[in-house]
Specification:
Layout (H helix, E strand, L loop, with lengths): L1 E5 L2 E5 L8 H6 L8 E2 L9 E4 L10 E5 L9 H19 L11 E2 L6 E2 L6 E2 L4 E10 L2 E7 L10 E4 L6 H13 L2 E13 L4 E12 L9 E7 L14 H7 L10
Length: 256
């Protein structure tokens, strides 16, 4: 199974979204030696590659945004596509040593690109990020972020900074983004989010004190939603944000 990416677009058959076989890959210049393994197991059939951003798809095929294939590819193939994208992006962006500029060499026993000159090793990047849904009695806090293209309301989120635990990130981001203090952090779950290389770690928390004061460069709106309030458009079920919100809906709410 071959995952061929043009940046964040995956090559699939235009109508059926079937992945290309090796003959289609070779037609656009992607050979067996170009493809990177998605797993280290030698018998694994999954391979991935990045192609030039200007390359056109062969007849009958199309490059489609990876996000657009949620619900089109089954869960297993979508998870594989996300992993394949992160590996291909790592290989694309680490062709040369970040210390001395020497072409990097792939290590055969692990996901590592190593410099033959200075020995610097580069591994696939994973960026941990927290997500938290704050509860206050029967209400939950939902926010609309300034950087998203949709008007959906979702849980608060933010990346872990150097030297922080994930719990410290939760408290810092909540206070920075909406000016609140919380307690009773409870782990909810995690999700790989390959856009391009995040790991989302989700929590619930209980409101302790403070009035909502939004960080305007990050948050467009934030408010409490509870029983009797109209339900806003919320995060899609495909994301952990969607799961988190649906698991904590106020009484009387239901969401597809």
């Amino acid at each position: 199974m071959n995952f061929v990416f043009r940046r964040d677009e995956l090559l699939v058959e235009a109508v059926s979204s079937v992945l290309p076989d090796i003959s289609i890959c070779e037609r656009i210049g992607v050979s067996v030696t170009t493809l990177q393994p998605v797993w280290m197991l030698p018998e694994s059939p999954y391979r991935t590659a990045q192609v030039d951003p200007g390359l056109e798809a062969p007849e009958g095929y199309a490059f489609k945004k990876l996000r657009s294939l949620f619900g089109v590819l089954d869960d297993e193939r979508m998870a594989l596509a996300g992993r394949a994208y992160q590996i291909s992006e790592w290989a694309r962006t680490h062709r040369f040593c970040g210390v001395c500029g020497t072409p990097a060499q792939r290590v055969s026993t692990e996901f590592c690109l190593r410099c033959p000159s200075c020995g610097f090793s580069a591994y696939p990047r994973i960026s941990p990020a927290m997500m938290v849904l704050i509860r206050k009695g029967d209400s939950i806090l939902l926010a609309r972020h300034t950087t998203t293209a949709t008007a959906r309301y979702t849980a608060l989120a933010g990346f872990v900074e150097p030297g922080e635990s994930i719990e410290q990130t939760v408290h810092r981001e909540i206070y920075e983004e909406v000016g609140l203090k919380v307690g009773n952090l409870q782990y909810f779950g995690s999700q790989s989010w390959p856009f391009p290389h995040s790991l989302m770690v989700a929590f619930t928390a209980d409101y302790v004190s403070g009035d909502i004061r939004i960080q305007e460069d990050e948050i467009a709106d934030a408010r409490w939603f509870g029983p009797g309030d109209p339900m806003p458009d919320i995060a899609a079920r495909i994301s952990i944000a969607g799961w988190l919100i649906r698991a904590n809906l106020p009484m009387g709410w239901s969401a597809p």
